[in-house]
Amino acid sequence: xxxxxxxxxxxxxxxxxxxxxxxxxxxxxxxxxxxxxxxxxxxxxxxxxxxxxxxxxxxxxxxxxxxxxxxxxxxxxxxxxxxxxxxxxxxxxxxxxxxxxxxxxxxxxxxxxxxxxxxxxxxxxxxxxxxxxxxxxxxxxxxxxxxxxxxxxxxxxxxxxxxxxxxxxxxxxxxxxxxxxxxxxxxxxxxxxxxxxxxxxxxxxxxxxxxxxxxxxxxxxxxxxxxxxxxxxxxxxxxxxxxxxxxxxxxxxxxxxxxxxxxxxxxxxxxxxxxxxxxxxxxxxxxxxxxxxxxxxxxxxxxxxxxxxxxxxxxxxxxxxxxxxxxxxxxxxxxxxxxxxxxxxxxxxxxxxxxxxxxxxxxxxxx
Length: 367
Hints:
Blueprint: E1 3-8, E2 17-18, E3 29-33, E4 39-41, E5 45-52, E6 58-66, E7 74-81, E8 91-97, E9 103-114, E10 119-122, E11 127-130, H1 148-156, H2 158-164, H3 186-193, E12 202-205, E13 210-213, E14 218-221, E15 223-225, E16 230-235, E17 238-239, E18 247-250, E19 259-267, E20 270-273, E21 277-282, E22 285-287, E23 292-295, E24 300-303, E25 305-306, E26 312-317, E27 320-321, E28 329-332, E29 341-348, E30 353-355, E31 359-364
Parallel strand pairs: 1-8, 4-11, 13-21, 23-31
Antiparallel strand pairs: 2-7, 3-5, 5-8, 6-7, 6-9, 9-10, 9-11, 12-15, 14-18, 16-17, 16-19, 19-20, 19-21, 22-25, 24-28, 26-27, 26-29, 29-30, 29-31
Helix pairs in contact: 1-2
């Protein structure tokens, strides 16, 4: 098998996003690794490998990665890599410096740019990018006595350290997980070197499943112990953009919000995944009361249609419960000016409660 080693990797800018207008064509190039299940550490070098399945007039290669699964968006690793060997079965490689993009939904994408149709392949399953091994200052994948001199070099002269270890991050020496490297990391460094580990993240209270109605508020929270904790909530396995606090809330749920939620908690010392919380969202009300304008002493009828188990009803005026108004119909036999206001009904089932849309009643003095 012919071997073509491409240029060494450069760390790609996370801001360099690229979306594709045309649908990809697969089967002509085959991504070998990473292809799913690999765990890659930030700052380490991983050799991406792919091979040609069907020969074409090859111009160059492009590589991307995604941290949110196979649908992107895609972030550039390297563009316009030289074509190398173009024979069927030829092996191509690229040394990728793993970016600081911690995720367990990483995919890699390789594209063959040809004189005609372009072809590509994507990792078959998710890959994980994890934080660098704390204390591994010489980036050999282990934490041992060989890291002592690099640790003190990084501590005393970060510029010299970066020159000596260009593929390493000085924050590997952040042993107390405060996002900086300073003298406070010396004692934790030697403690860990002696076998005293950073404390694991402890989840004290898991997010709880809930049965909700349309319009209810969803509040999910997790209580955990640890230092420098970060959070990322997911729904049905997909990252929720911006959901990066210990509490996640939706002020008025819709049926589309039903699903399985969980949160991934991370700090430089490790990660923890919460138990899943199943959220259901039911629609009780199918016909809402409507606004009306009537003359004084005219009758008024408000109605609601709902479906569910064990339904009860409570009509309200201007947010205040109306005594005895507990049926699907609410009737005012002869409306008075004082009856004007905003009416709604709270429908409660054995599962949840839903408030109807508001209906405004306007009572006028007619000639």
